[in-house]
Amino acid sequence: MNNLTKMSILKPAHEAFEAFVDPGKIGSFWFSSSSDRWEAGKTITLRYDEYQAQVDIVVKEVVADQRILFEWGGNKVTILFRDMGNSRTIVEINEEGFDEHDPELLQKMIGNKEGWVYVLTCLKGYLEFGINRLRAGIVFD
Amino acid sequence: MNNLTKMSILKPAHEAFEAFVDPGKIGSFWFSSSSDRWEAGKTITLRYDEYQAQVDIVVKEVVADQRILFEWGGNKVTILFRDMGNSRTIVEINEEGFDEHDPELLQKMIGNKEGWVYVLTCLKGYLEFGINRLRAGIVFD
In a mutagenesis test of the A interface, which of B100, B114, B127, B133 is the best target, namely the one with the most A β-carbons within 10 Å? Predict the structure, then answer.
């Protein structure tokens, strides 16, 4: 099963793409740090200091300004940057690999959806308005 | 079953509370319009012009700066404003009433979670940074 989330961002696809792959930018809307520039074949360590979380992702494919594929936790994530013209981009994130027989499927997919909606809204805030402090606001206790 | 979402907002509880109940403010982070100030016993019509959507809610309880309860679509929604001191508020939204035997439960709860995470992130952007154009960015096609 999969979670698909789409956000309209009033910036060119190049800027949205760079926000993910450039380790100098990710901390403005998502993880606090990324160990390297995202390129196919690399394993990247992402840290979220505020939540004491860390995860490794394996970048499988990168097409500049168009598409990123990576794997984490047994799932496959595809990020598409759809150039809509007039400096507007729809960023689509699709995470696949959820096991429909997993007794925790519901909570895992809800939590996953929470994460992606939050990431994409923070990305919109960062790219359109230059705000880098929308992130780390969700409370999980 | 229920969906619970919590957001830390660096503003006093009063400001977060007013953003929901004041029809002059809701359009900055959520629906485009609210037919009246939210008060217990009122039925309020909420419109989301960008998504051609409209819904009536029945406000069941309002405790200024602390709590709002309303019902929509057979579900009960509780919004709590938890004053954390130092002008920080945790806004908690809990929607209850999902039928665990509903064959569409998964998609309904995922969609519901998407909505509340988005609303609360837009609320944070509005209250902390004065941005009223984060809303209406999720793409549903």
Answer: B114
Residue pLDDT, tens place only, A71-98: 999 999 999 999 999 999 999 999 999 9
Per-residue model confidence as pLDDT tens digits over B82-115: 999 999 999 999 999 999 999 999 999 999 999 9
Are the beta carbons of B114 and A5 separated by less than 8 Å? yes
Backbone φ/ψ region at B87: left (φ over 0), alpha (ψ -120 to 50), beta: left
Q: Enumerate chain A positions whose Cβ falls within 8 A of a Cβ in B.
A: 3, 5-9, 90, 92, 105-106, 109-110, 113-114, 117-118, 120-122, 124-125, 128-129, 131, 133-134, 137-141
Burial class of residue B39 in the structure, from the number of CB atoms within 10 Å of its CB (0-12 exposed, 13-18 middle, 19+ buried): exposed
pTM of this structure: 0.98
